[in-house]
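Archive entry: two folds, one per protein. Generate the first.
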Amino acid sequence: MTISNDPVRVPSRTGSNSMAWLWLAVGFVLALMAAGVLALVDTQMIRSQVYESHAQPAGLTYENGLGRNYHVEIAEQHSMVLNRRLPDKIFIGHGPGVTYGHPVYLQSTGTEPFESRAVEWSQDGVRIEFTSGHELFVPASAFTGGR
């Protein structure tokens, strides 16, 4: 039996540590990219539910209105991916089921959507009073004319 005085060589672990850090960094970057894509998709995909609609009075016409009937529609909005509550959308445009017009976004301070107390149409524009005490005036020049 021979006994050697040579030191025992232990394999270096620095290579495996650096690989572990590399994979951790790659995983972190991929997770950040996935979170970014999720956030982008969530902000772009919006579900709106109209819960109030008010038509302009029959006797009121706007000089620049091209003979159109205008409506105020108030919609609650949620993101479709994460179902986040977004600001309510007040949309003023021509015809029911407004698809083109003037949007105004209101952030609710509670969980309940805005509810109108009164909607007053005039030649100058439309004024909406909410049960929360908020008041919104949109001048006629903002929603008349257009396409």
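Generate the second and append.
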Amino acid sequence: MKFVLLPLVVLAVIATSVIWVVALTKSEPETPKLGAVGGEAATSLPAATSGNDVLAPVEEISVGKERYLSPCQLLPRSSVESIFGSLDPDVRLYETYLDSSLPDPRNDASSVVTSCDYYGDWGFSIYVRQMVEPAASGSELIERIGFDTDEVEAAMTAFRAADVGDDPAAAALLAHLEDGYKVFQRPRNATLAQVDGLVVAGFGDRSGGTRDFALIVGSRIIRMSYEADVAPDADVVLSQFARARAIVLTNANDPSLSQAPSLSFGASDTLGETQLLEPCAVLSAETFEKMTGAAPNESVEREPLPLALPDPTSSRAEYGIEGSCSRSFDGFSVADDTALTKSEQRYGRRGSVYVVFDIAAFPDAASAQEEIAYYLEDEDSTAIKTDADAAVLRWTGSSYVLHFRTGPYVVDMRVRGDTYADGEYLDVNLTRTQFVNATNLLVKQIKGQS
């Protein structure tokens, strides 16, 4: 069994705008071609329903023998703000989530990590590691927490000196931490039953204000982190995480907890007269497969639209409200005894393809046209004829990026594809025809959802 982790975002800002892409050479390649779109007419896809439930799974998702837990549902934004303080309205959420169950012959991972990260003046992160293959012992789960001994000792030294006499919840958490510390120090013979419910704290070295807590629930590891320039006093930290732990434990054991990713906007939400669209509904799994020829088999990366929308007449709205979605196929994740499809064979078992899709909503088509005009006038851009109102391929010096406008929406899309042959990785690129057909496919999706 190969040990493969799905894409991981843990306790760090995801910079989706800084993604290295292996893309087209300046001359248009003929082979190998990327996906089923090349040379074919784009086909219409079923329209998705805009709104908060658009990414909710149709069927319940499981990981191994346990129910999948969506990190952003375990401790939703409302709870984060009630415990740690208000987030700036412009704060961005970065998220990785699952939209299908594991194990799956198309993903041979032994565990999977999903995450939910808020970053503003201060940051809060929660990630969940779930085991596809059951852990053999409690010591294995403790090792996977990832804390160093000195981090845990630093946390315990600070918390033992805290004044929690007037806070029963904080005092109870400190007692649980003492119990967890004893097991953490001597984990060798720990059983699964002994570590179920264990909680351990660590003071990370990323900054002076970082405070980490890890819980074990069944065979899931749930890790929470608060990060600021200066951390609150130890008694405040204990009080905050006592509340967070109680909510997380309640939600983790709730069989009706939503498995959807975080909520972003309502079905009636608009920017001016422009309907907001969910990026990962436009770049759905089906859309990805039609563009690339490979069915996505990794976790989904998402930067949804902000919850707080600007006045459509404001200068901020003129620059558009943007969200992002990334999907990928990794041939190495496919089980050895599972055949690749004909289209996937162009990447092979050591190749991959990754699509980064950004969509910005503007108050009106005129504002969107001003945005795309910048690329139309760029000397490194080439206009292409598509079903979009305007579309260009822009050469960045090492790759092409697709930019197009349809109505009040502007899309940027980057693709990275590779295959392994003769001891080296080779680029697998979109041709201009394939970019055209991918644009037409996405335009149909956008029009069907707006």
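Annotation attached to the second fold: Residues 1-51 have pLDDT under 50 and may be disordered. The domain at 270-449 is CATH 3.40.1000 (Protein Transport Mog1p; Chain A).
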